[in-house]
Fold YchJ family protein.
Amino acid sequence: MFEPCDCGSGATYITCCGRLHAGAPAPDAEALMRSRYSAFRRADVAYLLKSWAAETRPASLSLDPAQEWTGLKIHRHRLTGPDTAIVKFTARWRSGQRTGGLTETSRFRRDGAGWVYVDGSAG
Ligand SMILES: [Zn+2]
């Protein structure tokens, strides 16, 4: 059965973010970013914490159950060094009757075989 990935890549979930959620290392920062968006959609807190750099990871994370993530657009993915990268994206959301978009430039770093999220700033 074709299950389109939550991140909107057009690939199937199991060959896209599902691989990362199952433990495969992210090949690049954009793939990690996509897998984190998909994890937000699935309320997979364990994955969100696991894919967060140890130095900036919060002790816990609580998601707003009323907030639904409705779309992801990647604007830019750029290496900023041999082991660092940024991804600028907009994530659309809906909460009850309200809708909005979160635009953020996130920083990532290489961690072992994969990548982890460091932090982000608006815009
Ligand atoms: Zn995906």
Summary: The chain has a mean pLDDT of 96. Residues 5, 7, 9, 16-17, 34, 38 surround zinc ion (CB under 6 Å). Residues 13-57+65-122 form a domain with the Nuclear Transport Factor 2; Chain: A, fold (CATH 3.10.450.50). The chain has one domain: 13-57+65-122.
